[in-house]
Write a structure and sequence with these properties.
Length: 344
């Protein structure tokens, strides 16, 4: 047993595997009763993220239950603003909140505190690599600068990221500076995760879909490329998945332009377009997370369409976005069996 048996790494090198390997975005989370139990004893959500013991436990929960081909580090993209002392809190039913950042505060950001602060997350990665089955790929991650900036500027999640879009037009220099700071910190953070034992990393640009063409190039592609280039300068072999949700047709050439090894696709990406993208790079996705609630035949049909259209090229099977708290744990088992060809 060795690293060569980690299927997701093979796909990231361009191999086609049949059946494709599978993991799910947000696979550790509230749809699992065992997660809800651990969450109760952990204190706040951030306490859970910074407890290497408990974060390791919740990362392993979906691996024990489903035998996914990858474990994804349990943490959150907003630990970076937390480390930048933006007063990040997560409350039940409200979601993440923090102090909205101003242009002056961007110029005054101090990055010195970031690494001691994030060390517990790197300890979790080390613990995970020591505990995980040898064949399971360990994924690290960070948020893309644009997506993290949308929360830092608004101070909370927004349906259309209007505050960040407005800020980017009004305060372009400060905004670009924020993206640079986030890109450089994220690159350091990903390199730390790779040093600690992550096999590959994913960059989540969950709110890429609200930008026009030029803004997508400047605020999504350029900062993600800056992260990829910085990581590769130190680790030329680093494997990187980039997920730009909602970017649609702007995903054309996204892998080449960012330098990512593979691209994540949300469920709105047509499979014909996905098949064209797959000629250039491995792809990951893209089942609608609602099918984890709808279940039954609609779920199987959705998965089969992806397997039929993308299964003959390098594919990592996944949802098109994170699994939701309402997902049915038994449906996840059925999906895994279906993708692996274990059902009639
Ligand atoms: C935008 C974003 C965030 N966090 C993340 C993103 C990018 C991916 C995406 O778009 O889904 C990424 C993330 N968040 C979490 C992970 C863990 C790893 C995994 O299992 O995938 C990952 C990779 C755990 C989490 N992150 C969060 C939870 C739920 C909080 C809880 O348990 O109380 C989990 C399991 C909290 C979180 N964190 C964030 C929000 C908006 C929320 C609130 C959501 C809600 O309340 O439904 C920011």
């Amino acid at each position: 047993m060795s690293v060569e048996n980690r299927k997701i790494l093979k796909v990231l090198q361009g191999e086609t595997l049949s059946p494709p390997p599978i993991w799910l975005m947000r696979q550790a989370g509230r749809y699992l009763p065992e997660y809800r139990e651990t969450r109760k004893v952990a204190g706040s959500f951030l306490d859970l993220c910074y407890s290497p013991e408990l974060a390791t436990e919740v990362t392993l929960q979906p691996i024990r239950r489903y035998g996914f081909d990858a474990a994804i580090l349990f943490s959150d993209i907003l630990v970076i603003p937390d480390a930048l002392k933006r007063n990040v809190t997560f409350s039940e039913g409200v979601g993440p909140e923090m102090t909205p950042i101003t242009a002056d505060e961007i110029y005054a950001l101090s990055i010195n505190s970031v690494f001691p602060h994030l060390n517990p997350v790197l300890d979790t990665v080390e613990k995970l690599r020591a505990t995980l089955p040898h064949n399971t790929t360990l994924l690290g991650f960070c948020g893309a600068p644009w997506t993290v900036a949308t929360y830092m500027i608004a101070g909370h999640g927004t349906p259309d990221q209007a505050p960040a879009r407005l800020f980017a037009y009004r305060e372009r220099q400060a905004f670009l500076r924020l993206l640079d700071i986030l890109a450089d910190l994220s690159a350091e953070y990903l390199m730390g995760q790779l040093e600690a034992g992550a096999d590959a990393v994913q960059i989540f640009d969950s709110w890429a879909g609200v930008l026009g063409e030029d803004e997508f190039a400047d605020f999504c592609v350029a900062p993600v490329k800056r992260i990829v280039d910085t990581v590769r300068a130190r680790r030329p072999d680093a494997k990187i998945i980039a997920f730009a949700k909602g970017a649609g047709i702007l995903l054309k050439d996204y892998a080449r332009k960012t330098g990512a090894d593979a691209i994540g696709l949300d469920w709105s990406v047509p499979l014909s377009f996905a098949a064209d993208l797959q000629k250039e790079s491995p792809v990951q996705g893209n089942l609608d997370p609602m099918l984890m609630i709808a279940s039954g035949q609609p779920m199987k049909d959705g998965a089969s369409r992806i397997l039929d259209r993308l299964g003959n090229g390098p594919l990592i099977f996944n949802l098109g976005h994170g699994i939701t708290p309402q997902a049915l744990p038994e449906t996840v088992s059925e999906l895994v069996r279906h993708v692996r060809g274990e059902t009639a």
